[in-house]
């Protein structure tokens, strides 16, 4: 399906790059969120293990 016929060429290019940017930032945000979460979980698990050993 050709979407280009709907928009003037310049407009479509601008729109496409904006979509690309928002998708990229969304991916980055999701990636950071999941990575941080897994690190946090690992950290919490480690510290609880350390607490168990120390007590």
Strand content: under 5%
Count of DSSP strands: 0
Percent in helix = over 70%
Unreliable stretches covering 5 or more consecutive residues:
none
**Helix/sheet category:** mainly alpha
Major beta sheet, specifics? none
List the secondary-structure elements in sequence, H or E.
H
Q: Give the overall shape, derived from the CA principal axes.
A: rod-shaped
- Count, helices: 1
Structural description of this entry:
This protein has 55 residues and is mainly alpha-helical. Helices cover 84% and strands 0% of the residues. It has one helix spanning 9-54. The termini are far apart. The mean pLDDT is 83.
List the helices and strands and how they pair.
Layout: H1 9-54
In short:
This protein has 55 residues and is mostly helical. Helices cover 84% and strands 0% of the residues.
List keywords for this structure.
55 residues; mainly alpha; 1 helix; 0% strand; rod-shaped
